[in-house]
Write a structure and sequence with these properties.
This protein has one domain (5-49, 61-174): Deoxyuridine 5'-Triphosphate Nucleotidohydrolase, Chain A. The chain is 12% helix and 31% strand. It contains four helices and 14 strands.
């Protein structure tokens, strides 16, 4: 069951869903969504320095990416075909019985901006600033500004609270992230 606007408000008031800073509900709350705003830090692959992403290489993904921080008044220009990690200004903490799902905003999608490639689910018990997987699939550069509403979250109730919520997992690779974290796939046992 997807939470409605009234349920999202109730969960925010009781602290079951924690969003910091508290959202401006007049601007950020939809009928069943909560918009979040773009943060100031971006991570980009240094493709001119490294020939490829090799998951079995000794070079960590952190080394292949550079971090860019812009002020609230600056724009970040996402070039056509470019990929960047970013994050929301808001941090999010989910209870053990809710799943969060991130989606791009339709108005931005119509410009060719993709907000997430594959990672749309935020598990029960997850906490941190959501990382955005930004891609520009249009032919024109897109200027992005810190503070703009960039994505929306829906929240779904589980049939019961998770037995092992994300915060209790041994390998909770993206717990409590405060910056856009590059892939931690090298930590997987399958490589």
């Amino acid at each position: 069951m997807v939470l409605s606007d009234r349920d999202i408000k109730r969960y925010l008031v009781t602290g079951a869903i924690k969003v910091t800073p508290h959202p401006d509900l007049d601007k950020q709350l939809g009928a069943c969504t909560l918009d979040m705003r773009l943060g100031n830090v971006f991570k980009l692959f240094e493709h001119s320095k490294y020939p490829m992403l090799d998951l079995k290489s000794d070079v960590s993904i952190d080394e292949i990416m550079k971090s860019i921080e812009i002020s609230d008044n600056e724009s970040f220009i996402l070039q056509p075909g470019e990929f960047a990690l970013a994050m929301t200004k808001e941090s999010l903490e989910l209870p053990d019985d809710l799943v969060g799902r991130i989606d791009g905003r339709s108005s931005l999608g119509r410009l060719g901006l993709i907000i997430h490639g594959t990672a749309s689910t935020f598990e029960p018990g997850w906490s941190g600033n959501p990382t955005l997987e930004l891609s520009n699939i249009s032919r024109m550069p897109i200027a992005l500004y810190p503070g703009m509403r960039i994505c929306s979250f829906t929240f779904e109730m589980l049939s019961s609270a998770a037995e092992v919520p994300y915060r209790m997992k041994v390998k909770a690779k993206y717990m409590n992230q405060a910056e856009p974290l590059p892939s931690r796939i090298a930590d997987d046992d399958t490589l």
